[in-house]
From TrEMBL:
UniProt GO molecular function: actin binding
ADF-H domain residues: 1-144
InterPro entries reported in the protein's UniProt record: ADF-H (IPR002108), ADF-H/Gelsolin-like_dom_sf (IPR029006), ADF/Cofilin (IPR017904)
Pfam families, per database record: Cofilin_ADF
GO biological process, one term: actin filament depolymerization
Name of the protein in its database record: Cofilin
GO cellular component term of the entry, any: actin cytoskeleton
Top-level taxon of the source organism: Eukaryota
Family listed: Belongs to the actin-binding proteins ADF family.
UniProt keyword Flavoprotein, yes or no: no
Keywords, sorted A to Z: Actin-binding
Amino acid sequence: MMLNTQVSDEIIQSYEEMRLGKGKFKESKFIVLHMEEGSIQIDQNLTRLQNLDELVDKLPAKNSRFICYHLSFEMPSQTSGLREGKRTKMVFITWCPNEVNVKEKFKVAATCKTVKAKLNGMSMSYYAGCKGELDEKQLIEKCITFIK
């Protein structure tokens, strides 16, 4: 099920700038989106943060967010069959706290598909219901699993 939610051209352009390392969002690690009356908006305050720990600390406890995360990591040398070196992956994180009511969770799930369909080049998706689930090491391990 997909809701009739609007993803603006501004969001798509901002995401592409971050992904390609060009324009206003070339240095950004995140684009944080929130739902607002049938449309998706950029959460300007959270988008300006510099690392995942800062973002996790400031995520709202009772509201969901969609996070486009430009994850950079060093490929571990023990990974058999894969070359070492720096990797970057675009990760789509759905932040839906456990405190959110069931109706809102269904809305988030349906909207998630709409948003992901508009943003090309996502390497993986990740769902988090509590702040403890948002750990960079877990995200890197999941990315490495997809690379293999």
